[in-house]
Amino acid sequence: MFLKNCWYVAAWSKDVDRELLGRVLLNEYIVFYRKEDGTPVALENRCPHRNLPLSEGRLVGDDIECGYHGMIFNCDGDCIHLPGSETAPTWATVKRYPVAERNGWLFYWPGDPSKADEALLPDYHQYNENEHWIKAQGQTYVNAGYRLILDNLLDLSHLTYVHGSTTGNRAVAEMAQLTTELDGDSVRVTRWMEDIEPALAFRQYGGFKNNIDRWQMSQFIPPAYININNGSVDAGVGADQKTRNHDQGDWGFVVYHAMTPETETTTHQFWTVAGHEDKVPEHMRELFVEQMNNVLREDLHIYEAQQRAIDMDPKALNRDANPRGTIPADEGLLAMRRVIRRRYGDEKKTAQAAD
Fold it and tell me: pTM of the prediction?
């Protein structure tokens, strides 16, 4: 179940250059590259003649020469040269996808090109390229469906059990007050903890020696983005809603995730974990980056173990989670899935009406 009329992250901008990059996204094979002036291009990665991926060919100026029979396609997807012929066949075309860039990510639009409005690009990942933030960043190939990753990132009680050596402790699961809010199609889950013991990372980098007030705000943005804000202050100081959504208090960090499905059970996960330079002492920055990279590895193990179990469950619909019941912490997860189902249904109705 993939939403199509949305912007998805296709790659880190720095990873798209004058080399042809083939990538499967939403069950479609796409080739990415940059024109000589740096403009990004995304085309269907399949020659319409004998179906060799165009990424197996080479660039000739701003055009792609197929590596099998030498047909040349321009950046609009039209064949402009057939070897041995004065004219190119009109049937020889490939789909072109709208692309855009913002804050270090290259986005593409898999749906109706006429609806690809750059005003709809997400902008939550504002510190991706900010030199004043200490960042662990990467792209992870996940052998699990994208909704399992969204589940994980909307229910941060798992920090107690998955990330107990850094950002989690018992209080995160046992003492949080949960609030789930809907703002249009966005779902925001806030976990507020008062007078709790600080987890190891908060002691290491924040210097806390006594109890703290702590917050975690996790926001789902369709089709598959997660924006997380973590913060803390001394116990009793507290924090208003605006602070919990946007500020880190005395110590905290931000987390940006963009999930782009490859298939129903595989996902490209683009991510950043960042702390402001004022909150990460210079002599501890290498440790911070390594610890945050390890947090992503710990989560990866969870996603992929879940998917293996789901794949063996004959009752799991669409190879997705098949819970026998729900708990209070699932409220945000269920709200997210309702948004996806509703928008998916709306897209299907629109497509059927057009037919």
Answer: 0.94
